[in-house]
Amino acid sequence: MTATRQAPIHRLGISQILAYGLLFYSFASIKDALAASVGVSDSAIINALSIALFIEALLAPLVGSLVDRLGAIVVLRTGPCDWRRGVWCDDLHSSD
Questions:
Q1: Is residue 4 part of a domain?
Q2: In a 3-state reduction of DSSP, which class is residue 96?
Q3: Does the model's pTM come out above 0.85?
Q4: How far apart (Å, rounded) are the C-alpha atoms in residues 32 and 23?
Q5: What domain range includes position 29?
Q6: Is residue 1 assigned to a domain?
Q7: 2 found inside a domain
Q8: Which of 49, 60, 70, 93 meets the CB 3.0–4.6 Å disulfide criterion with 74?
Protein backbone atom coordinates (compact mmCIF):
# COMPACT_ATOMS: atom_id res chain seq x y z
CA MET A 1 0.00 0.00 0.00
CA THR A 2 1.29 3.45 -0.88
CA ALA A 3 1.51 5.90 1.99
CA THR A 4 0.38 9.45 1.29
CA ARG A 5 1.94 12.40 3.03
CA GLN A 6 -0.57 14.40 5.02
CA ALA A 7 0.11 17.59 6.92
CA PRO A 8 -1.09 17.85 10.51
CA ILE A 9 -4.15 20.06 10.79
CA HIS A 10 -2.39 22.55 13.06
CA ARG A 11 -0.01 23.47 10.23
CA LEU A 12 -2.94 24.41 8.04
CA GLY A 13 -4.48 26.50 10.80
CA ILE A 14 -1.24 28.31 11.57
CA SER A 15 -0.59 29.10 7.92
CA GLN A 16 -4.11 30.47 7.48
CA ILE A 17 -3.81 32.65 10.59
CA LEU A 18 -0.48 34.02 9.35
CA ALA A 19 -1.85 34.67 5.86
CA TYR A 20 -4.86 36.57 7.20
CA GLY A 21 -2.73 38.49 9.68
CA LEU A 22 -0.24 39.54 7.04
CA LEU A 23 -2.79 40.49 4.41
CA PHE A 24 -5.71 42.00 6.29
CA TYR A 25 -4.58 43.29 9.67
CA SER A 26 -1.51 45.03 8.34
CA PHE A 27 -3.62 46.78 5.70
CA ALA A 28 -4.80 49.45 8.14
CA SER A 29 -1.24 50.57 8.77
CA ILE A 30 -0.44 51.09 5.08
CA LYS A 31 -3.70 52.49 3.71
CA ASP A 32 -2.83 56.14 4.40
CA ALA A 33 0.55 55.92 2.69
CA LEU A 34 -0.96 53.88 -0.14
CA ALA A 35 -3.71 56.43 -0.71
CA ALA A 36 -1.18 59.27 -0.75
CA SER A 37 1.15 57.50 -3.18
CA VAL A 38 -1.64 56.55 -5.57
CA GLY A 39 -3.36 59.92 -5.25
CA VAL A 40 -6.78 58.76 -4.10
CA SER A 41 -8.75 59.10 -0.89
CA ASP A 42 -8.65 56.65 2.00
CA SER A 43 -12.23 55.66 1.23
CA ALA A 44 -11.23 54.67 -2.32
CA ILE A 45 -8.58 52.35 -0.87
CA ILE A 46 -11.13 50.82 1.51
CA ASN A 47 -13.60 50.43 -1.39
CA ALA A 48 -10.93 48.63 -3.41
CA LEU A 49 -10.35 46.28 -0.48
CA SER A 50 -14.10 45.66 -0.24
CA ILE A 51 -14.28 44.84 -3.95
CA ALA A 52 -11.31 42.51 -3.58
CA LEU A 53 -13.06 40.70 -0.72
CA PHE A 54 -16.19 40.36 -2.87
CA ILE A 55 -14.12 38.82 -5.67
CA GLU A 56 -12.55 36.52 -3.09
CA ALA A 57 -16.04 35.38 -2.06
CA LEU A 58 -16.91 34.67 -5.70
CA LEU A 59 -13.72 32.61 -6.14
CA ALA A 60 -14.18 30.65 -2.91
CA PRO A 61 -16.03 27.70 -4.51
CA LEU A 62 -13.30 27.30 -7.13
CA VAL A 63 -10.54 27.47 -4.53
CA GLY A 64 -12.46 25.03 -2.34
CA SER A 65 -12.62 22.52 -5.17
CA LEU A 66 -8.87 22.97 -5.73
CA VAL A 67 -8.28 22.29 -2.03
CA ASP A 68 -10.37 19.12 -2.30
CA ARG A 69 -8.52 17.98 -5.41
CA LEU A 70 -4.92 19.08 -4.73
CA GLY A 71 -4.76 19.50 -0.97
CA ALA A 72 -4.72 22.59 1.21
CA ILE A 73 -0.94 22.87 1.47
CA VAL A 74 -0.52 23.04 -2.31
CA VAL A 75 -3.19 25.73 -2.63
CA LEU A 76 -1.85 27.76 0.31
CA ARG A 77 1.66 27.64 -1.12
CA THR A 78 0.54 29.04 -4.47
CA GLY A 79 -0.87 32.22 -2.86
CA PRO A 80 2.48 33.83 -2.01
CA CYS A 81 3.87 32.75 -5.39
CA ASP A 82 0.99 34.44 -7.19
CA TRP A 83 1.40 37.55 -5.01
CA ARG A 84 5.11 37.74 -5.85
CA ARG A 85 4.34 37.29 -9.55
CA GLY A 86 1.90 40.22 -9.34
CA VAL A 87 4.50 42.42 -7.63
CA TRP A 88 7.07 41.42 -10.26
CA CYS A 89 4.67 42.29 -13.10
CA ASP A 90 3.89 45.62 -11.42
CA ASP A 91 7.63 46.35 -11.16
CA LEU A 92 8.02 45.67 -14.88
CA HIS A 93 5.09 47.95 -15.66
CA SER A 94 6.34 50.72 -13.38
CA SER A 95 9.84 50.74 -14.92
CA ASP A 96 8.47 51.75 -18.35
A1: no
A2: coil
A3: no
A4: 16
A5: 12-94
A6: no
A7: no
A8: 70
